[in-house]
């Protein structure tokens, strides 16, 4: 795989309870491939509030501590909305391979949000591989991305 992010930095990962099993599976899969992963929780299947884990994951990406982020929740909408409150974060919700590619190509997404209740684990792995290996296209898209932040 052609990794387009800074491989010297960890991958930030987080979830709520609905995404916990996917987070654990993906974390172990990435570690098995030799990547450094920083897990921001959730720590179990016990019910939690997704912002408590999406914010630290997004902060890690926003500060440059992490190369990029992966977030899971039931629909992925809650974690995406939360992560996108961070000015330097562009969190994209992906549910199929083409979307995982386009959020990188056109939106320069630095966090991929995956709906654990609606996507099979092998597809989640495929989307993450696509996300990790797809470079931002730039050009006219750079102008658009430059207009996203409020400050």
TrEMBL record:
GO process terms (BP):
D-allose catabolic process; pentose-phosphate shunt, non-oxidative branch
Query: Which residues are D-ribulose 5-phosphate-binding?
Result: 16-17, 74-78, 107, 117, 140, 144
MF-aspect GO terms: ribose-5-phosphate isomerase activity
Keyword Isomerase recorded: yes
UniProt entry keywords in alphabetical sequence: Isomerase
Where, by residue number, is the active site? 73 (proton acceptor), 106 (proton donor)
Similarity comment: Belongs to the LacAB/RpiB family.
Q: Which PANTHER family match?
A: DNA DAMAGE-REPAIR_TOLERATION PROTEIN DRT102 (PTHR30345:SF0), RIBOSE-5-PHOSPHATE ISOMERASE B (PTHR30345)
List the protein's name: Ribose 5-phosphate isomerase B
Origin organism is Sediminibacterium goheungense
């Amino acid at each position: 795989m052609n990794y387009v992010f800074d491989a010297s930095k960890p991958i930030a990962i987080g979830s709520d309870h609905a995404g916990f099993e996917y987070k654990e599976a993906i974390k172990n899969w990435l570690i098995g491939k030799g990547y450094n992963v920083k897990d921001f929780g959730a720590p179990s299947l016990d019910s939690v509030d997704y912002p408590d884990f999406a914010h630290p994951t997004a902060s890690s990406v926003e500060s440059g501590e992490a190369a990029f982020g992966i977030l899971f929740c039931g629909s992925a909408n809650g974690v995406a909305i939360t992560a996108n409150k961070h000015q330097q974060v562009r969190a994209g919700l992906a549910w199929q391979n083409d979307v995982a590619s386009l959020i990188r190509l056109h939106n320069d997404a630095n966090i991929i949000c995956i709906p654990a209740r609606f996507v099979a684990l092998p597809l989640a792995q495929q989307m993450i591989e696509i996300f990790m290996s797809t470079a931002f296209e730039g050009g006219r898209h750079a102008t658009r991305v430059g207009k996203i932040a409020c400050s």
